[in-house]
Amino acid sequence: MGKFFVFFLFWTSCLIHVETLTNFRIGGELACAYNKDFQYEVTLFEWDWIDDDKIGFVSSGRGHGSGGFHIEGKDTHDGPGNNYFDMYLQIVHTCNSYENFRQKYNAFIGHFPIKHGEEYIKNYNINITNAGSYMASKRKLINPAAFANFNGEWSGSEFPLK
């Protein structure tokens, strides 16, 4: 009976594997130099070699000149041999000279040592004016020939419609 009890204790200790989390509370202001209303979505990511980890919910909003954001996220580890979280904010915004074009900008916010139970609280001021790459528009584009025909500018000789 004593051997069974020792084996049972050993077995249950092997099954119980507790990983504590590293917590992130990230906030700040997004600055837009254009004198217009803009929209934004901010997501917290941890960079990886193969696939980045989304570790925070999306913080979205509207601003004029600036807009605030706050994200909370958590992670347990960053793969073998890596002792740091490589964090960035993915910011999708409309702060550009166009009316409704969206841009995606990745703002690197730092390397954070993996310390289980640690909570990182950071604030950032990020200028997103025309920052990042343009994304596909959600609007349906108009065929130029159809637009000319609609406006009575179609001569009919260039591309006959049948």
From TrEMBL:
Record's signal peptide: 1-20
InterPro entries noted in UniProt: Transthyretin-like_sf
Gene3D superfamilies xref list: 2.60.40.3330
Keywords: Signal
Superkingdom of origin organism: Eukaryota
Protein name: DOMON domain-containing protein
Gene of this entry: Cnig_chr_X.g23094
